[in-house]
């Protein structure tokens, strides 16, 4: 590691921090119901240096910041929000699983992290000892290294803290789904234990990372205004509306409520059965749609509240042109730069019939 202090000229520039904050102001206006003239586009900058972050997390942070220093001026783009984002997600989506004792391994062929299920009885899960847990120690070292450099411009993206349901399915597989019906008290206990741990981790970050820089996972594409959180709702597609509302929705609400402004839920499958529950969840301020979930944009746009924003990754099944026809660009954040010209917001779409509202 280089001797301190290290010069990160761009990552400490007041004008670049001010440019980032101007984008935050514009993004906040969307959350407050004041659409800009143009459709909002988000496309952050990231860095991954050739250093093993599992062995040398402090050096990885230093080298990543040096790479981001050269990219930081991109935040001055007046049309597209291009924040510089430092983010390392140890063990991928199995970060929390490892803390709960699940065997986690890396598959070279696929380039992905996987885990094996626990074989312990549902209802017996214990919270990890965070003071001694090596997985959490690694994540802490990354955060502390970031803070040690006193950079003010880049965002800090969290590891995949996910959600109570996502983690429970990772730990138990289908057993937790059956237990929610056959052993609801045992299932509810373990879901609560998981959620308490997730909330504790979010609080740790909130107490240490400056609000203007703290962002949830996949920060380059899911940046929200300061003070918003996020959870992963991938596995909600496996639940009926009643089961989600009774067992999981209160936990999701509690997790998002750790943040002063609530936050976002990431969706990538078929989840529209839960729109009425999410419409009534005060802490839910945004949904992030990609892949299969993006095909249901119309249902989310019409079914959610006017103060619930939609982050969308366009793809062949939901191109920008169709997204614009559905939303007019209202309450919409595009998560990647579309082909030029960038779309201009249209008049609000009219309901297709008197019953659509």
Brief account:
The protein has helices at residues 14-31, 57-71, 95-99, 134-148, 164-172, 174-182, 184-208, 219-222, 241-256, 275-279, 297-303, 320-327, and strands spanning 40-42, 45-46, 80-81, 84-87, 104-107, 112-115, 155-157, 214-215, 229-232, 263-267, 284-289, 309-312, 332-334. It has 357 residues and is α/β, with parallel strands linked by helices. The model is unreliable at 352-357 (pLDDT under 50).
Give a quick set of tags describing it.
357 residues; alpha/beta; four-stranded parallel sheet; 38% helix; globular
Tell me the layout of helices and strands.
Layout: H1 14-31, E1 40-42, E2 45-46, H2 57-71, E3 80-81, E4 84-87, H3 95-99, E5 104-107, E6 112-115, H4 134-148, E7 155-157, H5 164-172, H6 174-182, H7 184-208, E8 214-215, H8 219-222, E9 229-232, H9 241-256, E10 263-267, H10 275-279, E11 284-289, H11 297-303, E12 309-312, H12 320-327, E13 332-334
Parallel strand pairs: 1-3, 1-13, 2-4, 4-7, 7-8, 9-10, 10-11, 11-12, 12-13
Antiparallel strand pairs: 5-6
Helix pairs in contact: 2-4, 5-7, 6-7, 7-9
